[in-house]
Amino acid sequence: MTELHIIEQQALEKINQSSSLAQLEEARVEYLGKSSKLMNLMKTLGSMEPEQRKTFGAEINIIKNKLQEIVDTKKAAFELQIINAKLMSEKIDVTLPSRSSPQGKIHPVSQVIDEVTAIFGTMGFSVAEGPEIEDDYHNFNALNIPKNHPARQNHDTFYLPNEGGNTMLLRTHTSPVQIRSMKLGKPPFRIISPGRVYRCDWDITHTPMFHQLEGLLIDKDIHMGHLKGCIMEFLQKFFAIDDLPVRFRSNFFPFTEPSAEVDISCSRTQGELKIGGGEDWLEIMGCGMVHPKVLRNVGIDPDVYQGFAFGMGLERLAMLKYGISDLRNFFEGDARWMEHYGFSSFDIPSLVGGLAR
Ligand code: PHE
Asked: Which of 241, 189, 238, 256 is closest to 216 using CA atoms?
């Protein structure tokens, strides 16, 4: 056997024996690579007689091509094997239930804002916003709160450094949004405004920051009957009790006249509070007919336009509806509390879908 054929035999053997891509590559380098015996033989062609070079050259080429073809075929087969193995091992079972990963919850305040907005939305109210850093004009003066009103005293209000001659503060209620909305637009108005408010207070029912919802309706020929109807409708929808007894108890707010505090009926048996149908009453919000002075302050003629306003604490609504006892827990950021009292992000409150879990 010539040297060429010995090399061919050895190469074929090695190639056929290789059982992986790496082994095959090793064989290829050894028998077809630049410094392989076959290539070295090719280099001797130059020193041969032309006739010999022709036949020998052709012979080497045939063998070289044959080996290369076998390597290529085997390589393709190995690659296919690898892909198939991968496909088998990475198979996805789409029928498996998803792994339970920790899911965030909607905070009860956010949930209640959504619920309240859904209810007032069906009554034609839209959402208005105002700044949390206010001046005393919008928070007090324009709302007819005189300089000596108790709400003005330092222990209630967080005051900030003056700005351009204005006394600045953290708003103590959402009522300044009434002023801002009326100054921005033209009557009629039908707005609600949920948001953060601040008062210097801290105990089981008070936190220095909490949330209120303001409501304002201004139109022609609006009277106390509209106010009562609107608020009763809201409370009955919110607590999902159609015949929920609601009581309007006269009260004083500088920016409404007449003013009332709104109570809903409840019962307390052995310390357990039940809303609707009972001997007891529970205070839930303040309201009244917008004071003519307030209307004049924003350039509205009270002989042409009248209206009502109301304000309520959103944490209080959440506590009553969902049986949460301590207000302070709302803002402690305890994941266990959120897990228990939070809402699923898939529950979007609406009148049609039901406002609660
Ligand atoms: N702003 C009042 C408060 O914080 C609530 C209120 C709003 C009362 C609107 C009447 C009308 O107590």
From this structure: 189
What does the H/E/C string look like for 38-85? HHHHHHHHHHCCHHHHHHHHHHHHHHHHHHHHHHHHHHHHHHHHHHHH
Inside any domain, residue 346: no
Model confidence over 106-141: pLDDT tens digits? 999 999 999 999 999 999 999 999 999 999 999 999
The residue whose C-alpha atom lies closest to atom 7 belonging to ligand 1 is 311
Confidence category of residue 257, pLDDT binned at 50, 70, 90: very high
Query: What's the whole-number mean pLDDT along residues 217-224?
Result: 97
Q: What percent of the chain has pLDDT over 90?
A: 69
Containing 318, the helix (H) or strand (E) segment is helix 314-322
Atom of ligand 1 nearest to the CA of 174: 1
Q: Is the CB of 176 under 6 A from ligand 1?
A: no
Provide the domain count of the chain. Answer: 2
Strand partners, 203: 206
Regarding the beta carbon of 310 and ligand 1, being less than 6 Å apart is answered yes
| 115 and 169 both lie in a single domain | yes
Average pLDDT over residues 306-328: 94
Is residue 194 within 6 Å of ligand 1 at its C-beta?
no
Residues 84, 118 within the same domain:
no
Each residue's pLDDT tens digit, 39-69: 888 888 888 888 888 888 888 899 999 999 9
Range of the domain at 313: 108-341
Q: What is the pLDDT, as a whole number, of residue 50? A: 87
192 lines ligand 1 (CB under 6 A): no
CA of 160 to the centre of ligand 1 (A): 22
pLDDT of 333 above 80:
yes
Region at 165 (left for phi over 0; alpha for psi -120 to 50; beta for the rest)? left
pTM as predicted: 0.72
Residues 34 and 176 in one domain: no
Ligand 1 contact, 64 CB (< 6 A): no
Q: Residue 97 falls within a domain, yes or no?
A: no
Our answer on whether the CB atom of 139 is closer than 6 Å to any ligand 1 atom is no
pLDDT of residue 57: 87
100 occurs within a structural domain: no
Nearest to 188 by CA among 227, 214, 217: 217
Residue type, 195: G
Domain CATH number, residue 265: 3.30.930.10
